[in-house]
Amino acid sequence: MSPAPADELGYKPLDGGWGWMVVVGAHISIGFAYSTPKALSIFFKEIQEELGASYSEIAWISSIMLAAMYAGGPVSSALVNRFGSRPIVILGGLMCWASMVTASFGTSIIYIYFFIGVIGGCGLALNLNASLTIISKYFLAKRPLANGLAMAGSPVFLCFLAPLNQYLLDKFGWRGSLLILGGLMLNCCVAGALMRPEQPNNSITKLKGSCVKNSKKFLDLTFFKDRGFIIYLIGNMMFIFGAYAPIVFLPAYAIDQGVEEYAAAYLLSIMGFVDMFIRPGTGLVANSKWIRPRIQYFFSFAMIFNGTCHLVCPLLKSHALLVAYAVCFGIGFGMVFALIFECLMDLMGNERFPSAVGLVTIIECFPMLLGPPTAGLLVDIYGDYKYLFMMCGSVIVAGGLFLFVMNTCNYHMLEKEKTAKDRHQYSTKNFFLNISVMVVPEEKSGSQKVTRIHHLGKKSMCTEISPSDSYSNE
């Protein structure tokens, strides 16, 4: 599908200029939003031992944080529509800082759930949605590339946070590490400061009216009437269910296979390093004239590749093979997340995207919440990580196949509907058929009257006009 026209926004996006500084801010904000729940897994073993939690209980930390991040989408969208992206991202950074600092004093797993999971997750929600929304205002033609560069923040930050957290854990323990991590997350406030509003003079009134309208619509349920949106949502939920558990448990799995702790932590760094280059690269490919009209199929392929990596993982036992898995995982994961929001923009258009992403994220919080704990429960029951990877891989591959098949059917149906609509418009345009003109002399004046006969199906309608009137055989 082609990108939405500029007149949907009421102005032509810059596709450059200060927009690239906005991408830098979004890169930082999105980087913390997506990498923090993953990088926190470095602390899980120590927290688990100190607080006496099981694998499934400890997995709830990342799940609650991610679920709160996604569930906060509609609230974040409404706040962005009302106040703009800049103050919302700054507020999100402050919330993340407060959550990490407060959690460092925790004495129970429930305490950690609330402060890291709920408060921290809500702060990340403000960062994520505000960053995605402002990119859609600054870019149109170069939007896939801008999204790819912004989404690359996740692997870039994961690449550095994973070994950094391991170092901090060895030096300061998990409590001191959370204090330092909270301080680092204040950089989200700097990122927010870069997000200058884009409101051209000729569209201020329109944008303000749109903001008021959107703020009144907390959840726009009319999206459920859109067949393409439903297909995207189902496939995306299947991916989200299996996406994060392999990341959360990868270091523990590697240690279980005899890999040294730092080497296990570096597997996440390797994944992040590969992902770092894959996301902008995928954005460039997706922006090409061959791929952009078929971007939904490209998204399906990325999901299938990602899921296949997880299905193969239980066969890999040595450190070298796990490194290869981390590389492939980074490729698949990076491709999916470079496309995941671009595909939604492609379906909904720039104007409807903020409301659509809010609805998608709040629905996705449920598979996000259940995925890692379900995987952790499998480890608790069977004492083996292979079932975790098999479950996640199967669900993701099924989701990719679902998207491919259903998008094929959807595009076929859209083409049929377009043909039927064009045929209907053609028949309507030619509704007045077989018009005949008859000249009849007028008895009294000697002038003439022209009688036009319109044949409307089985009925006829006659009108009389004088010779001086202009007429045409329509």
From TrEMBL:
GO molecular function: monocarboxylic acid transmembrane transporter activity; symporter activity
TM stretches of this protein: 58-80, 87-105, 111-132, 144-164, 176-195, 229-250, 262-278, 298-317, 323-344, 356-375, 387-406
PROSITE patterns found in the cross-reference section: MFS
Record's keyword terms, sorted: Cell membrane, Membrane, Symport, Transmembrane, Transmembrane helix, Transport
Known catalytic reactions: 4-methyl-2-oxopentanoate(out) + H(+)(out) = 4-methyl-2-oxopentanoate(in) + H(+)(in); 3-methyl-2-oxobutanoate(out) + H(+)(out) = 3-methyl-2-oxobutanoate(in) + H(+)(in)
InterPro entries linked to this entry: MCT, MFS, MFS_dom, MFS_trans_sf, Proton-linked_MCT
Membrane topology: Multi-pass membrane protein
Cell location: Basolateral cell membrane
Presence of keyword ATP-binding: no
Keyword Cell inner membrane: no
Chain ranges of the Major facilitator superfamily (MFS) profile domain: 21-411
GO terms under cellular component: basolateral plasma membrane
The family this protein is said to belong to: Belongs to the major facilitator superfamily. Monocarboxylate porter (TC 2.A.1.13) family.
PANTHER family: MAJOR FACILITATOR SUPERFAMILY (MFS) PROFILE DOMAIN-CONTAINING PROTEIN, MONOCARBOXYLATE TRANSPORTER
Protein name in UniProt: Major facilitator superfamily (MFS) profile domain-containing protein
